[in-house]
Amino acid sequence: MKRLIFVFCLILTAFQPVMATGQTEVQASPLPAVLRLGAIKGPSGIGLVHLLETPPVLPGGDTVSVELVGSADAIASKLLSGELDAAVLPVNLAAKLYNSGIDYRLAAVVGNGMIKVITTDPTIVGITDLSQRSVHVAGQASTPEFLLRAILEHSKLTGEAAPTLVFNLPIPEIAASMIAGRINLAVVPEPFATMILAGNPEAREAFSLGQLWQEATGLADYPMTAFVVKVDTADQRPATVQALMAAYRDSITRMLANPQEAGVLAEKFEIGLKAAIAAKAIPQSNYVFLDAPASRPMVEGLLNVFLASAPVSVGGKLPAESFYADFGQSR
């Protein structure tokens, strides 16, 4: 019996290096993974069309699965539950979720200012012409409202001089009403501004909100759309995340170079826009791909506007420095 036990121990000892080596190899070469990327149908999703058409080749056999959802709330729900490895969403929502403790970081700003004042009234040519008028605004407690309020305050259009902001129509109905001539003044984002301009020959952009923002803040632009990545995913698969970011950047570059082709793809993948409107709106929509650390001044400039009007909309404070992740794209 002693001899049998001794032989068994020898055999077990002989196999230990093999077993340990096998375990090390599994850890060093993880199985291919599917990265789950979520985006909202509409303008923010258009930048992904070439990535949808030609899925990128990622390191180690990894792949990406893109899910298009109907609202920012749906994206937030999936981020809170950890269902997504990356997402495209409004900048203030990204900040709010970070401040609530979810384990995602800003990787890049993928859309800058695209909010416009559209009117059919020929007498409206400057911000002061909004005084005591009714202005339909696309989305209450969102970027169009807070941006406009900040500019009105800087222009001293407050109190009795302030315009009346009207929020009783959803954005598509604002566009339809302006095209039909039922309302004559609205603040809307792209592509709805392009829809109105294409549908009503009397409609025009009254003046540049972007220029007024620059005068008010000293910042060249304001961000609208963020690309966030889950920290665990970036830590475990850094090369894959970098490759995905490169593919996203390339998709935006190709979209800007050929809006007509991108418009066809937007309709093909049911992003929420017809090809002709998407093609017209893309050059006006200020798509970019700015790595997070470089975009921090612009992001904080916009978030300060949200903090002044509705602190809860960004989680009550500016995000910490760790919000602005460097996943290797800026080097």
Features:
alpha/beta, 11 strands, 5-stranded mixed sheet, single chain, 6-stranded mixed sheet, 331 residues
Describe this protein's structure:
With 331 residues, the protein is α/β, with parallel strands linked by helices. The chain is built from 14 helices and eleven strands. The chain has helices at residues 2-28, 43-46, 49-53, 72-80, 91-99, 143-154, 171-180, 192-199, 209-217, 231-236, 238-257, 259-268, 275-281, 292-309; strands at residues 34-40, 63-69, 86-90, 104-112, 115-119, 134-137, 164-166, 185-189, 204-205, 223-230, 287-291. The strands form two sheets. A six-stranded mixed beta sheet has the order 2-1-3-10-4-11, sandwiched between helices. Strand 6 (134-137), helix 6 and strand 7 (164-166) form a beta-alpha-beta unit. Residues 4-29 have low confidence and may be disordered.
At a glance:
The chain is an alpha/beta fold and 331 residues long. The protein has 14 helices and eleven strands. The longest helix is centred in the first third of the chain and has 27 residues, at 2-28.
| Count of runs of 4 or more consecutive helical residues | 14
Low-confidence stretches: 4-29
**Structure summary, number of beta strands:** 11
Report the helical percentage.
40-55%
Beta-strand residue percentage:
15-25%
Distance between the termini: 65 Å
Instruction: Determine the mean pLDDT.
Output: 90
| Pattern of helices and strands | HEHHEHEHEEEHEHEHEHEHHHHEH
From the spread of the alpha carbons, the general shape counts as globular
